[in-house]
Every structure is written in structure tokens, then in C-alpha cells.
Amino acid sequence: MAKVKKAIIPAAGLGTRFLPATKAMPKEMLPVVDKPTIQYIVEEAIESGIEDIIIVTGKGKRAIEDHFDNSFELEQILLEKKKYDLLDEVQKSSKLVDIHYIRQKEPNGLGHAIWCARKFIGQEPFAVLLGDDIISAEKPCLRQMIEKYERYNSSIIGVQHVTDEEVSRYGIVDGRWVEDALYQINHLVEKPKRGEAPSNLAIMGRYILNPGIFDILGNQNPGAGGEIQLTDAIATFNQTEAVYAYNFEGTRYDVGEKMGFIQTTIEFALQREELRSELLKYLSGVMEREAEHAG
């Protein structure tokens, strides 16, 4: 059985929710505390055993390539100033793993972005990690999914439960329980209305897919928004090959919208020993001032 050793990270979106910050900076480079969001995704892939990553970029995304490349001038300055801790952090991103790049020339949706990487993947199973979801877990989310893949040899989608109020924001899975948080998918519903969702299991930006999905993506008709939708292709794939949903363990942080990004930054900062005490003091002061104004 082929091992999952390659991963695709789509990073071609325009990041319109974060304008004007993303006018000149890729949204994937927005920092959570002091690390770009895409580095959290890359690190999860590496910790899960991924050996090769291809990042699908678009116009104006050169900063991503620069981040994962060497920066000789900066490294030399830090070395001369004996700032070894900072030097180690700067060099870390360029030593993580072999990273490749391909450009999605037209904004034709997530499914099309995945299809753009087909030649890099070949006939191997592969992972997809979306950059809007940072997942904190004792065992990396993707590692959990790879272990399930190695048992069932079938495509797997990462899911978690959401509230009834949230189902309309996600692709929702209708599945049959198999074992230990694993479901065999009956069908997928993209952003159903509240009350019409078949479950509360929402797709959370992690996939392991068999290469047969590329044939479907290559012939897929545009779906919602006039784009090639990955969810639609997986639904078609599920008609001929079993696809599973796995309710992974861990905390998922949504950095694809403003409030989620702010919340993630605060929570990650609170996990840093050098920031926690001062940040808690600041937040306590904010709450006191808000209470005074409300009164």
C-alpha cells in the first residue's frame, strides 16, 4: 500500500476578508503572534510524516516562497550580532522540508487548485491542508488521519462537530458510523440551511485523497460561485470509491475570518510563557474598563 508522503497546501486565494492588509501581503503570511499562519500548516504536515509539499500560489504570493527560502543577508546580520535564538528561528522555516510551488493562473476554486498539482502528486495518495484552519492537537490532526488511511486505504475527510447555528458555513457530512469517530460517507451537503443539515459533522480543512480524484476534478462542472468545488468532486468520487469522515481530536482555530484570527492570536499568545502574565493583566484591564462604560 502506498504511503501518504506528499501534501498540497492551496494558497492562491485573494484574502478579501483581510483587506486592505492583504492588498500587498498574502493572507497566509499574516502572523499569529510571530509566526505566519502557513508555517503552522507546514509544521503540522512535517510532524505527520509528510516529506514533500507543494504550495499552490497565485499572483502576489511571492512572499510565501521568500519565507521558506534562505535569507543570507538577514542571517549574516543576526550572526554578527550574536542573536543566535533569532537566527535559529529565521533558519527554521527554510530547513523544514522540500517545498515546491505551482501557480494557479486563474481563480477557479479550491478543486481547480488541487487539480493544478496533479503532475506533482502522480499516482500516489496525498494530503490537502487548508490554511484557514490551524489545528492544535497532542497528535497532529493529519497524523491521526494518515493512521486511519493506512487501515482502510480509502480517502478520508477531517471533520468536527459544529452547532446548529454554524452548519450553514460549512460542508456537512451525512455518514454511517463505522468505529471510533470514523464514518463512511453517504453524501455531502455544501453549506445547508439550518434545519436541513443531515448532521453536525462539518468539513474542517484536512483531507487525504486517492489520486483518482484528479480524473473527476478534470471533468468537474463549476459549482457554487462558478468555481470548481472540491466538495462536489469528492461527492462524485464517493459514488465509485468509499470515502470516510474522521472526527479528529484537537482544537481547531479558524484564521480565515477576522474574529477567529483575533481569538487565535490571543489564545496562542496566552500559551507563551513570556507573554501570558502581561497579556492576562492587559485583558483584565480591558474588561474592567468595558464594565465601567457599560455601567
Describe this structure in words.
This protein is of the alpha/beta class and 295 residues long. 36% of the residues lie in helices and 25% in strands. The protein has eleven helices and 13 strands. The longest helix has 22 residues, at 273-294. The N and C termini lie far apart (65 Å).
Characteristic terms for this protein:
25% strand, 295 residues, alpha/beta, 11 helices
Briefly say what this structure is.
The protein has 295 residues and is of the alpha/beta class. It has helices at residues 37-47, 62-67, 72-80, 84-92, 110-116, 118-121, 141-152, 213-218, 230-237, 258-270, 273-294, and strands at residues 6-11, 31-32, 35-36, 52-57, 98-103, 126-129, 133-136, 155-161, 171-179, 182-190, 201-209, 243-247, 251-254. It has a nine-stranded mixed sheet with strand order 5-4-1-6-11-8-12-10-9, sandwiched between helices. A two-stranded antiparallel sheet has the order 2-3.
Strand order of the largest sheet: 5-4-1-6-11-8-12-10-9
Which runs of at least 5 residues are low in confidence (pLDDT < 50)? none
Q: C-alpha Rg, in Å?
A: 20 Å
Query: What is the count of helical runs?
Result: 11
Mean pLDDT over the residues: 87
Helical proportion?
Answer: 25-40%
What's the overall geometry? globular
The secondary structure category is alpha/beta
Q: What is the strand tally?
A: 13
Biggest sheet descriptor: 9 strands, mixed
- The portion of residues forming beta strands comes to 15-25%
Query: What separation lies between the terminal Cα atoms?
Result: 65 Å
User: Helix and strand string, N-terminal first?
Assistant: EEEHEHHHEHHEEHEEEEHHEEHH
